[in-house]
Amino acid sequence: MSAAMVQVGALSARGVGVELDGATVLDDVTLDVLAGEVLVIVGPNGAGKSTLLSVLTGERRPTTGVIELDGRDLHSIPQKELARLRSVLTQENTVSFPFLVSEVVAMGRAPWAHTIEGRDDVHAVLDALDATDVRHLATRRYTSLSGGEKARVSLARVLAQHTPIVFLDEPTAALDLRHQEDVMRLGRRMADEGRAVVIVVHDLSLAAAYADRLAIIAGGRLEAVGAPAVVLTEERVERVYGLPVSLHLVNGRPVIVPER
């Protein structure tokens, strides 16, 4: 753990609701994000997963309820301090100008500018490039990369920020099978280092393979949260997704197979 890492305890959402254009997008969600674990959020399209993530990160203010970090209202924390406490990979990661990959990743170090922790910048960038398998792209222009390569570079930028809480919104969406597994293993490793890691994914089996806790969001409500083997039942998955499935345990972890 580098000098840039600070310690935090629990991030807690209590009775959180969000209304957009008169519609209820989140309804009375209570959830804890804990250091040292991978929390994976799953649910159908439009269920409210990304909205929940934006509330947990402080990007969006809830209509009702409160988000607290170690007992502090998240929205009372100055933006510069918040950027040193949590990093966020959103679904939309666009870089319009032809920056080098190394420059894009180095942008993740901005919160540490003019601090003693800024001395770690070079190592943090190199470590992030290695962790996401993009070091060989360091001198390429970001705009010249494939979709999957851009996704891994965007993830590297988030890792370089080196925060105790990491939020990843669909980080595997543009990736091949190997790099999907690499990303989830990386999340697992960060949690093992003591960070709190929150990941939104669609693949239930992938989620179950790496999550300490799994949270299912359906219709803006928290349907269930707990260990993957407890949360993922055939009945619940069929009800939430409207699709018959069969469930198999592999090494104690559920694998979901749609009935075709």
Topology diagram in text:
Blueprint: E1 11-20, E2 23-33, E3 38-42, H1 49-56, E4 64-69, E5 72-73, H2 79-82, E6 86-89, H3 101-106, H4 121-131, H5 147-161, E7 165-169, H6 177-192, E8 196-200, H7 204-210, E9 213-218, E10 221-226, H8 228-231, H9 234-241, E11 245-250, E12 253-258
Parallel strand pairs: 3-8, 3-9, 6-7, 7-8
Antiparallel strand pairs: 1-2, 1-4, 4-5, 9-10, 11-12
Helix pairs in contact: 4-5
Structure description:
- The strands form three sheets. The chain has a six-stranded mixed beta sheet, sandwiched between helices.
- The chain contains nine helices and twelve strands.
- It starts with 10 loop residues before the first strand and ends with a strand.
- It is 30% helix and 28% strand.
- It is globular, with a radius of gyration of 18 Å.
- It has one domain (11-258): P-loop containing nucleotide triphosphate hydrolases (Rossmann fold, 3-Layer(aba) Sandwich), CATH 3.40.50.
- The mean pLDDT is 92.
- The protein has helices at residues 49-56, 79-82, 101-106, 121-131, 147-161, 177-192, 204-210, 228-231, 234-241, and strands at residues 11-20, 23-33, 38-42, 64-69, 72-73, 86-89, 165-169, 196-200, 213-218, 221-226, 245-250, 253-258.
- How helical, in percent, are the residues? 25-40%
| The first-level CATH class name | Alpha Beta
Q: Roughly what fraction of the amino acids lie in strands?
A: 25-35%
Distance between the termini: 47 Å
- How would a crystallographer describe the biggest sheet? 6 strands, mixed
Number of domains: 1
* Count of distinct strands: 12
CATH topology: Rossmann fold
Oligomer: single chain
Order of helices and strands: EEEHEEHEHHHEHEHEEHHEE
Q: Name the CATH homologous superfamily.
A: P-loop containing nucleotide triphosphate hydrolases
What is the CA-atom radius of gyration, in angstroms? 18 Å
Tally of helical segments: 9
CATH architectural category: 3-Layer(aba) Sandwich
Classify the secondary structure makeup into a structural class: alpha/beta
- What global shape is seen? globular
- Stretches where pLDDT is under 50 for at least 5 consecutive residues are none
**Which strand order do you get reading across the main beta sheet?**
6-7-8-3-9-10
- What is the overall pLDDT average? 92
